[in-house]
Amino acid sequence: MTGWVDRVSAMLAATGLPAILPGRGPLIVMYHGIGGSDGIAPDDFRAQLELLRTRRRIVPLAELADRIEDPAAVDLAAITFDDGYVDFAELAAPILAAADLHATLFVPAGRVGRSNEWDAGQREPRPILDAEGLRRLDPERIEIGGHGFNHRRIVALDREALAEETVGCRRELERVLERPVKLFAYPFGQRGDFDAEAERAVAAAGFVLACSTCFGRSSRERERFRLRRVGIEPGDDLAIVAAKLDGAYDWVAWKERAGHALRLAQSAFAAGRP
Ligand SMILES: [Zn+2]
């Protein structure tokens, strides 16, 4: 998040308002890289997990999704990581194991053993786990999900490309892991980065849910193939993480929605111009 978003949210947190806001439900936390010059430091990650545990009971993502509108499940959380980086196995997995916590790791199937080439020029290169590294993760503790095949936006794709990013992603990961792969997260994952056709294709490919990167502390059952998440970013101190968990950032969901509507309107306007 940018600095001004953090400042507005800090002011909101100070009012005590978030505590009485609606929007509390089973919550999915999202991480990317741990360690390195632009990842979350391992000690910070450990402290964030401790904080999360004071507020929520952490369960596997599939279990959380099955109780998405269950009023008795409002204290649940699931932990997710996107991109399948080597640092997940080296730094995050031991911390999760020591805390006896479950997490889901979303892997771009066609990039196994490569790196985050999609971030070239914007972020430091991070290696992605190879097949052997994925197989070494404890399946009891770490569920591996799909994150597309090429880590591309799954929007307005032709039928062949859409199949590669969904069915192809699942088949390739199942070939590598020799077990079923049922969970999915859209690369990039904002509303403009996947469309309704992508949601249908992910469901038809046999996945049982899909995560977006749209901000939100809860989702509805009808959003099962575009679940909201709470992203924890490098640079978030514990006060920011607490504010995100407690609702002071809930307004960001509206900001994202308005931004998406504005972009749609702009492209419709541009398309209508002679
Ligand atoms: Zn990604």
Would you write up a description of this structure?
- The chain is globular, with a radius of gyration of 18 Å.
- Strands 1, 2, 3, 4, 5, 6, 7 and 8 form an 8-stranded parallel sheet that branches.
- The chain is α/β, with parallel strands linked by helices and 274 residues long.
- Helix 2 crosses helix 4 (86-98) and helix 2 packs parallel to helix 8 (238-246).
- It has helices spanning 3-15, 42-55, 61-65, 86-98, 131-136, 159-177, 196-204, 238-246, 251-272, and strands at 27-31, 57-58, 76-82, 103-107, 142-146, 183-185, 209-215, 227-231.
- It contains 9 helices and 8 strands.
- The N and C termini lie far apart (37 Å).
- It has a single domain (3-272), classed as Glycoside hydrolase/deacetylase (TIM Barrel, Alpha-Beta Barrel), CATH 3.20.20.
- The mean pLDDT is 92.
- The relative contact order is 0.17.
- The chain binds zinc ion (ZN).
Helix content: 40-55%
Point out poorly predicted stretches: none
Number of domains: 1
What is the CATH fold-level name? TIM Barrel
Bound molecules: zinc ion
Q: Layout of SSEs?
A:
Layout: H1 3-15, E1 27-31, H2 42-55, E2 57-58, H3 61-65, E3 76-82, H4 86-98, E4 103-107, H5 131-136, E5 142-146, H6 159-177, E6 183-185, H7 196-204, E7 209-215, E8 227-231, H8 238-246, H9 251-272
Parallel strand pairs: 1-3, 1-8, 2-3, 3-4, 4-5, 6-7, 7-8
Helix pairs in contact: 1-8, 2-4, 2-8, 6-7
The structure holds zinc ion.
Zinc ion is lined by residues 82-83, 147, 151, 187.
